[in-house]
Design a protein that fits this description.
The protein has eight helices and nine strands. It is of the alpha/beta class. It folds into two domains: 94 residues, Rossmann fold (3-Layer(aba) Sandwich), CATH 3.40.50; 92 residues, Arc Repressor Mutant, subunit A. Strands 1, 2, 3, 4, 5, 6, 7, 8 and 9 form a nine-stranded mixed β-sheet that branches. α2 links the parallel β2 and β3. α4 packs antiparallel against α8. The longest helix has 14 residues. The radius of gyration is 19 Å and the shape is elongated. The model has no long low-confidence stretch (mean pLDDT 95).
């Protein structure tokens, strides 16, 4: 199978651990270098639109939180080339994080910052994620997925703040307005969080556009 835009292997490695032979490609040499070792995982530096795979060689193509960056018409043409007859394509993404219990002060602070403060600074492609890929062109027969899929992590306050600082929208926000908006959010979240060593469940809803090519 082919995992496209694989980053450092967040999806590629679990697939390999399930016994699938995975060719994991990414355009970034730095990301490829971070990919973990596994006998069934084969990292290759390549663009999504131009892979080194042989024609008709894969039965499954996946892309996790990456398809909105692709030149889709060229990527779909490459999927048709490398795929066997009836190849499956699965485009996976995840939405904005929530802190459980939903509606708690911490959750409200995070959602407000994500939507109202950092939101205007996301790149335009982010709108495809915000709509769960429903507006992403997908000219193939569609297969339904479990709507209850989600990722979870149990994090402390410092871990969550470190994650927020990785958002591209936060970097753009800092360039435009300096550190004050992020510092204000940090203070609000600290007040809502309570005990700074307490760990809370952070949830990302997953969405999937999948079908046969």
């Amino acid at each position: 199978m082919w995992d496209v835009g694989a980053g450092s292997g967040q999806l590629s490695l679990p697939l390999a651990q399930e016994g699938l032979r995975v060719v994991a490609t990414d355009a970034s040499a730095a990301q490829i270098a971070r990919m973990p070792g596994h006998r069934l995982l084969h990292p290759v530096r390549a663009r999504a639109e131009l892979s080194p795979l042989a024609t008709g060689s894969v039965s499954l193509v996946t892309a996790a939180q990456a398809a909105h960056w692709f030149a889709l018409s060229e990527f779909y043409r490459e999927v048709r080339r490398v795929g066997e007859s009836g190849v499956r394509l699965a485009l996976v993404g995840y939405g904005a994080p929530r802190i459980e219990p939903e509606g708690s002060p911490s959750d409200k602070a995070l959602r407000s910052f994500h939507r109202e403060v950092a939101g205007p600074y996301w790149p335009p492609e982010r709108r495809l994620v915000d709509h769960g890929y429903e507006t992403l062109p997908f000219p193939f027969s569609r297969e339904e997925a479990d709507p209850g899929l989600r990722m979870e992590a149990e994090w402390g306050l410092a871990q969550l703040l470190g994650y927020v600082r990785t958002w591209s929208s936060v970097r753009a926000l800092e360039e435009a307005r300096g550190m004050e908006p992020l510092e204000r959010f940090r203070r609000e979240l600290e007040a809502a969080w309570g005990d700074p060593v307490a760990r809370r469940n952070v949830v990302w809803p997953l969405f999937l556009r999948a079908g046969r090519v």
